Amino acid sequence: MTSMQRVLGSIVSLWRYPVKSMMGEELNAAEVTKDGLLGDRAYALVDSRRAATAEEYWPDIEGLDHRDAVTDFGLPDGTFFDCAFVHLLTTATLGRLRVLYPEGRFEVRRFRPNIIVETANGEKEFTENAWIGQIVAIGDAVRLSITGPCARCVTTLPQGDLPKDAGILRTTAQHNHAKVGVYASVLQSGKVRRGDSVTLE
To answer: How many domains would you assign to the chain?
Structure first.
């Protein structure tokens, strides 16, 4: 690390989701390729009669781009990603949301990020919003370009032991424009592991 780099934190967990929109698996290490974490969103259930698209239901909650509507959008050719290959989320954002809505279970599984960063200096705000437009280095090899915020439309549905909870999305909409974490493209591939440092270049 050079003196020009600022420490953002370190990786506290890694996730990939082999089948789009289904349960994920937590990893100790992962290979990051130009198309994201190896094996992430490698499969999806699609209607073979149509081009691959995804549908999103937007609840009737103030602050969302759409309200009480279903929208659909095309997926990038040959992939099952919505907007970007990597989704980063900080413990600071999860912590802030828990403070704002203590009745809710703001767990990683609801938001499907790939890399969870435990922030340095005990920050408690939506820290990663400030990373947009910048380059983040992870460990010795991986470099990510932070391209934009990750908009959430449905985080309310039950999954595993997590109950349905409309308050999850309502809280993110009211306090952070329904954005949870940031999206990134891969500038430089390599291996990432739990505990790797995350720095801003």
So the answer is: 1
